[in-house]
Amino acid sequence: MTPEAYAQDKAAASGSSFYYAFLFLPPPRRAAITAFYAFCREIDDVVDEVHDPGVAQAKLNWWRQQVLRCFNDAHGPPEHPALLALRPHLPVYGIESAHLMQVIDGCQMDLEQTRYLDYASLQRYCHLVAGVVGEVAARIFGQTDPATTAYAHRLGLAFQLTNIIRDVGEDAMRGRIYLPVNELQRFDIKAHELLRRGQTSDDTFFRRFEALMRFQIERALGCYDEALTLLPGADRRSQKPGLMMASIYRTLLREIATEPQLVLSRRVSLTPLRKFWLAWKVQALGRL
Fold it and tell me: CA angle, 164 as apex, 160 and 168 as ends, to 5°?
């Protein structure tokens, strides 16, 4: 299997909403974003699938060395197919080693902490695992205006907040709570109630949890609105893939808002056909 085929399979197998936006890109840009997404998935899998923290740390260290090989031939080319697929695109789209290292730094945070005291500390995490990803994606999509970087970071934050809302139950099963501690306190939610997904709480839990989630959803929706106001008109056409993803993710948030408690027991999702339809509408109409 070629590195390009590996990256394609990795991206397609994830079932991510991002994949549907990639389909509308011209082949060179589609190959670049697919390889970059495959790299991000590989790093994310280290934290999600490796249960021994020592082994996970060793794997992240290995990935750091692999990234260095992409930018320095002294020790030979990278060995992993995802990076072999990505390497030719790095100079074309101005992707730097710092971008890739920051993605790894974000996953490093997952090894070191499972709680965030406030929204400011959560934003730092979101910047690394999503804002930087948004910045790289904007470059690949065809950014021409430097101001588009601010849009990309805000949109990345919106995406990550959506992921956190969607994955509350799954994260709880891994012992993680991304919702800020001071906001849990504000809505009278105890950490143990979330970790047990409300199964042993009193009758008021779901009412309290719904209030917490509606607050989280409104903030995330606000981030999408802020991102759209930051997108320069000159880059609106080139950044259509990001707008497609925003359409899909905002629709997902609104689905969750109808029954917020469902995120505790299963992953709320849209059908592949609905995702494709939402992406196509942005491609055809140029708006969300």
Answer: 170
